[in-house]
Specification:
The strands form two sheets. This protein has a seven-stranded mixed sheet with strand order 2-3-4-1-5-12-6, with helices on both faces. The chain has a five-stranded mixed sheet with strand order 9-8-10-7-11. It is of the alpha/beta class. A hairpin with a 4-residue loop joins strand 3 and strand 4. The longest helix has 10 residues.
Protein backbone atom coordinates (compact mmCIF):
# COMPACT_ATOMS: atom_id res chain seq x y z
CA UNK A 1 0.00 0.00 0.00
CA UNK A 2 1.24 3.49 -0.87
CA UNK A 3 2.40 5.50 2.15
CA UNK A 4 -0.03 8.22 3.22
CA UNK A 5 0.70 11.86 2.40
CA UNK A 6 -0.96 14.32 4.79
CA UNK A 7 -1.95 17.68 3.31
CA UNK A 8 -3.28 20.74 5.16
CA UNK A 9 -5.76 22.89 3.25
CA UNK A 10 -7.51 26.06 4.49
CA UNK A 11 -10.73 25.26 6.36
CA UNK A 12 -12.21 28.65 5.40
CA UNK A 13 -11.33 32.10 4.11
CA UNK A 14 -9.99 33.58 0.90
CA UNK A 15 -7.47 30.80 0.22
CA UNK A 16 -9.87 27.86 0.46
CA UNK A 17 -11.73 27.84 -2.92
CA UNK A 18 -8.66 28.07 -5.12
CA UNK A 19 -6.72 25.64 -2.93
CA UNK A 20 -9.42 23.04 -3.53
CA UNK A 21 -9.37 23.91 -7.21
CA UNK A 22 -5.75 22.75 -7.49
CA UNK A 23 -6.82 19.19 -6.68
CA UNK A 24 -9.97 19.52 -8.76
CA UNK A 25 -7.96 20.43 -11.86
CA UNK A 26 -6.00 17.21 -11.39
CA UNK A 27 -9.30 15.30 -11.16
CA UNK A 28 -8.67 14.43 -7.53
CA UNK A 29 -11.93 14.31 -5.59
CA UNK A 30 -11.97 14.65 -1.81
CA UNK A 31 -14.19 12.20 0.07
CA UNK A 32 -15.20 12.56 3.71
CA UNK A 33 -16.73 10.05 6.08
CA UNK A 34 -18.95 12.51 7.97
CA UNK A 35 -20.31 14.87 5.33
CA UNK A 36 -19.49 18.39 4.16
CA UNK A 37 -18.54 19.71 7.60
CA UNK A 38 -15.96 16.97 8.20
CA UNK A 39 -12.49 18.47 8.69
CA UNK A 40 -10.75 15.29 7.52
CA UNK A 41 -10.93 14.06 3.95
CA UNK A 42 -9.33 11.46 1.69
CA UNK A 43 -8.43 11.29 -1.98
CA UNK A 44 -8.76 8.02 -3.85
CA UNK A 45 -6.04 7.82 -6.46
CA UNK A 46 -4.11 5.13 -8.30
CA UNK A 47 -0.85 6.95 -7.71
CA UNK A 48 -1.23 8.58 -4.30
CA UNK A 49 -2.71 7.90 -0.87
CA UNK A 50 -3.79 11.33 0.40
CA UNK A 51 -5.27 12.44 3.70
CA UNK A 52 -6.60 16.02 3.78
CA UNK A 53 -6.77 18.06 6.98
CA UNK A 54 -8.88 21.23 6.82
CA UNK A 55 -7.31 23.64 9.30
CA UNK A 56 -6.77 27.35 9.83
CA UNK A 57 -4.00 28.64 7.57
CA UNK A 58 -1.93 29.50 10.67
CA UNK A 59 -2.30 25.98 12.06
CA UNK A 60 -1.00 24.57 8.77
CA UNK A 61 2.39 26.20 9.41
CA UNK A 62 2.64 24.56 12.85
CA UNK A 63 1.56 21.20 11.41
CA UNK A 64 4.43 21.28 8.91
CA UNK A 65 6.92 22.29 11.59
CA UNK A 66 5.94 19.53 14.02
CA UNK A 67 5.63 16.89 11.25
CA UNK A 68 1.91 16.21 11.69
CA UNK A 69 1.53 17.17 8.02
CA UNK A 70 3.70 16.75 4.95
CA UNK A 71 2.36 19.51 2.68
CA UNK A 72 0.21 22.60 3.05
CA UNK A 73 -1.26 25.50 1.14
CA UNK A 74 -1.04 28.62 3.25
CA UNK A 75 -0.07 32.29 3.09
CA UNK A 76 3.57 33.32 2.88
CA UNK A 77 2.84 36.05 5.43
CA UNK A 78 2.01 33.39 8.02
CA UNK A 79 5.22 31.49 7.30
CA UNK A 80 7.41 34.60 7.50
CA UNK A 81 5.68 35.73 10.69
CA UNK A 82 6.52 32.46 12.47
CA UNK A 83 9.65 32.15 14.57
CA UNK A 84 12.98 31.22 13.02
CA UNK A 85 12.97 27.67 14.36
CA UNK A 86 9.66 26.97 12.58
CA UNK A 87 10.79 28.58 9.32
CA UNK A 88 13.92 26.39 9.26
CA UNK A 89 11.77 23.27 9.13
CA UNK A 90 9.63 24.34 6.16
CA UNK A 91 10.45 24.60 2.45
CA UNK A 92 8.51 27.13 0.38
CA UNK A 93 8.02 24.95 -2.69
CA UNK A 94 6.00 27.13 -5.08
CA UNK A 95 4.30 30.52 -5.09
CA UNK A 96 0.68 30.38 -6.24
CA UNK A 97 -1.17 33.00 -8.27
CA UNK A 98 -3.93 33.68 -5.75
CA UNK A 99 -4.39 35.05 -2.26
CA UNK A 100 -2.52 38.23 -3.18
CA UNK A 101 -2.50 40.79 -0.38
CA UNK A 102 -0.22 43.18 1.48
CA UNK A 103 0.70 43.65 5.11
CA UNK A 104 0.50 47.38 5.80
CA UNK A 105 0.46 49.85 8.67
CA UNK A 106 -2.72 51.92 8.91
CA UNK A 107 -3.71 55.01 10.88
CA UNK A 108 -7.03 56.81 11.38
CA UNK A 109 -8.17 59.01 8.50
CA UNK A 110 -8.70 61.72 11.12
CA UNK A 111 -5.09 61.63 12.37
CA UNK A 112 -3.79 64.09 9.80
CA UNK A 113 -0.53 64.78 11.70
CA UNK A 114 0.61 61.20 11.11
CA UNK A 115 1.23 60.45 7.45
CA UNK A 116 4.51 58.48 7.44
CA UNK A 117 6.96 56.48 9.55
CA UNK A 118 8.94 59.68 10.12
CA UNK A 119 5.82 61.21 11.67
CA UNK A 120 5.38 58.11 13.84
CA UNK A 121 8.97 58.42 15.07
CA UNK A 122 8.61 62.10 15.92
CA UNK A 123 5.29 61.65 17.72
CA UNK A 124 6.58 58.61 19.64
CA UNK A 125 9.50 60.59 21.07
CA UNK A 126 7.13 62.39 23.41
CA UNK A 127 4.72 59.55 24.11
CA UNK A 128 4.83 55.82 23.22
CA UNK A 129 2.50 54.81 20.39
CA UNK A 130 0.52 51.57 20.50
CA UNK A 131 0.25 49.45 17.37
CA UNK A 132 -1.93 46.34 17.23
CA UNK A 133 -1.43 43.39 14.87
CA UNK A 134 -1.56 39.63 14.36
CA UNK A 135 1.89 39.84 12.78
CA UNK A 136 4.17 40.78 15.67
CA UNK A 137 7.34 39.19 14.28
CA UNK A 138 7.11 40.89 10.88
CA UNK A 139 6.02 44.24 12.32
CA UNK A 140 8.75 44.43 14.95
CA UNK A 141 11.42 43.52 12.40
CA UNK A 142 10.08 46.14 9.99
CA UNK A 143 10.04 48.90 12.62
CA UNK A 144 13.53 47.94 13.70
CA UNK A 145 14.83 48.06 10.10
CA UNK A 146 13.22 51.50 9.64
CA UNK A 147 14.70 52.68 12.96
CA UNK A 148 11.26 53.50 14.39
CA UNK A 149 11.42 53.48 18.18
CA UNK A 150 9.04 53.77 21.12
CA UNK A 151 6.20 51.86 19.42
CA UNK A 152 4.54 49.26 21.63
CA UNK A 153 3.31 46.30 19.55
CA UNK A 154 0.15 44.64 20.89
CA UNK A 155 -1.13 41.21 19.88
CA UNK A 156 -4.56 41.15 18.25
CA UNK A 157 -6.83 38.17 18.80
CA UNK A 158 -9.90 39.49 17.02
CA UNK A 159 -10.99 42.08 14.47
CA UNK A 160 -7.81 44.14 14.27
CA UNK A 161 -9.25 46.94 12.13
CA UNK A 162 -11.62 48.15 14.87
CA UNK A 163 -8.83 48.75 17.41
CA UNK A 164 -8.28 52.40 16.46
CA UNK A 165 -11.99 53.22 16.60
CA UNK A 166 -12.28 51.87 20.14
CA UNK A 167 -9.02 53.57 21.26
CA UNK A 168 -7.23 50.29 21.83
CA UNK A 169 -4.30 51.44 19.69
CA UNK A 170 -3.24 54.34 17.49
CA UNK A 171 -1.95 52.23 14.61
CA UNK A 172 -2.94 48.92 13.00
CA UNK A 173 -0.82 46.53 10.95
CA UNK A 174 -2.91 44.07 9.01
CA UNK A 175 -3.29 42.15 5.77
CA UNK A 176 -5.25 43.99 3.09
CA UNK A 177 -6.23 42.96 -0.42
CA UNK A 178 -8.89 45.38 -1.66
CA UNK A 179 -8.59 47.91 1.17
CA UNK A 180 -12.37 47.94 1.65
CA UNK A 181 -12.31 46.68 5.25
CA UNK A 182 -9.75 49.29 6.24
CA UNK A 183 -11.74 52.08 4.57
CA UNK A 184 -14.96 50.91 6.25
CA UNK A 185 -13.23 51.31 9.60
CA UNK A 186 -11.87 54.80 8.84
CA UNK A 187 -8.31 53.60 8.25
CA UNK A 188 -5.77 54.70 5.67
CA UNK A 189 -2.27 53.31 5.17
CA UNK A 190 0.86 55.24 6.00
CA UNK A 191 2.63 56.52 2.89
CA UNK A 192 5.59 54.20 3.55
CA UNK A 193 3.81 51.58 5.64
CA UNK A 194 4.04 48.60 3.27
CA UNK A 195 5.69 45.75 5.17
CA UNK A 196 5.21 42.75 2.90
CA UNK A 197 3.46 41.58 -0.25
CA UNK A 198 2.13 38.06 0.08
CA UNK A 199 0.22 35.31 -1.69
CA UNK A 200 -0.66 31.67 -1.24
CA UNK A 201 2.08 29.08 -1.62
CA UNK A 202 2.65 25.35 -1.58
CA UNK A 203 4.83 24.51 1.42
CA UNK A 204 6.39 21.23 2.47
CA UNK A 205 8.00 19.94 5.63
CA UNK A 206 11.73 19.60 4.95
CA UNK A 207 11.62 16.25 6.72
CA UNK A 208 8.82 15.04 4.42
CA UNK A 209 10.53 16.44 1.33
CA UNK A 210 13.09 13.65 1.61
CA UNK A 211 10.37 11.10 0.76
CA UNK A 212 10.14 10.13 -2.91
CA UNK A 213 6.34 9.91 -2.93
CA UNK A 214 6.10 13.47 -1.56
CA UNK A 215 8.41 14.80 -4.26
CA UNK A 216 6.43 12.91 -6.89
CA UNK A 217 3.15 14.41 -5.69
CA UNK A 218 4.60 17.93 -5.60
CA UNK A 219 5.69 17.63 -9.22
CA UNK A 220 2.25 16.29 -10.11
CA UNK A 221 0.26 19.20 -8.66
CA UNK A 222 2.77 21.98 -9.39
Amino acid sequence: MKKEIIICLPSKGRLRPQSLNILKKKRMKIFSEKGERDLVGYVKSKNFNLKILFVHAREAIDALANSTADLAISGKDLLFNSNTNIQRKIKLYKNLDFGHASLKIFRSIYWIDCQSLLDVSEIARNKPIKLITKYRHLVENFLDEKNVRNVEVLDSNGATEIAVRINQASLVADISSSGKTAAANDLVELSDGLILKTSAAIMVSKKSYKRKEVQKFLKFIA
